[in-house]
Amino acid sequence: MNDIVVGMGEALWDVLPEGKKIGGAPANFAYHVSQFGLPSCVVSAVGDDALGKEIIENFTSKGLNQFIAEVPYPTGTVQVEIDQAGVPQYEIKENVAWDNIPYTAHLEAIAEKTKAVCFGSLAQRNVVSRNTINRFLDAMPQTEDSLVVFDVNLRQGFYNKEIPAQIEMPVHEFLEKC
């Protein structure tokens, strides 16, 4: 795979009143890019559990290239409740697999072939995934036609004015990568 498009970060289950569905903006991004016939890959982590195996099987059945690490944390879920006004409320589980995406030599090889990447602020809530994302960005070719998409996720409980500090670099340096 050369000149690939990567969705990096959360791959999880949205647990809705009517049942569970695969979610996570980076995973959805990689899937939809693949539907346009472009080489794409989802990069995330799942637990060594039934929900994680089901995510991998789902991506495989859709022909989606993937680098999904199995880590000793549960597969991520988001409990979605709809209030009386029809407004969804999200309970995003913490300390889950996608909070702990490891950086490996294989992932670095993917980064070196990446033309575009999409990742978000949510996947950076934990230092492990945050460091992996930053190392991936550093390993990615920096060319005129490279594209970095940063999804600012303003979900309740996962946004505060300290987010730039959590990224561990000045905002202007971070945005230059984008």
Summarize the structure.
With 178 residues, the protein is α/β, with parallel strands linked by helices.
Per CATH, the class reads: Alpha Beta
**Backbone shape:** globular
Structural class: alpha/beta
CATH topology (level 3) name: UDP-N-acetylmuramoyl-L-alanine:D-glutamate ligase
- Report, as a whole number of angstroms, the end-to-end distance: 22 Å
> How much of the sequence is in beta strands?
25-35%
**Biggest sheet, spatial arrangement of strands:** 5-4-1-8-9
Percent of residues in helices? 25-40%
Q: Identify the CATH architecture.
A: 3-Layer(aba) Sandwich
H/E element order:
EEEHEHEEEHEHEHH
How many alpha or pi helices?
A: 6
Walk me through what this model shows:
Strand 6 and strand 7 form a beta hairpin. The chain has a single domain, classed as Ribokinase (UDP-N-acetylmuramoyl-L-alanine:D-glutamate ligase). A 5-stranded parallel β-sheet has the order 5-4-1-8-9, with helices on both faces. The protein has a 4-stranded mixed β-sheet with strand order 3-2-6-7. It has 178 residues and is of the alpha/beta class. The model has no long low-confidence stretch (mean pLDDT 89). Helix 3 packs across helix 4. The chain is built from 6 helices and 9 strands; from the N terminus they run βββαβαβββαβαβαα. 34% of the residues are buried. Helices cover 30% and strands 30% of the residues.
What are the defining features of this structure?
single chain, 178 residues, alpha/beta, UDP-N-acetylmuramoyl-L-alanine:D-glutamate ligase, four-stranded mixed sheet, 6 helices, 30% helix
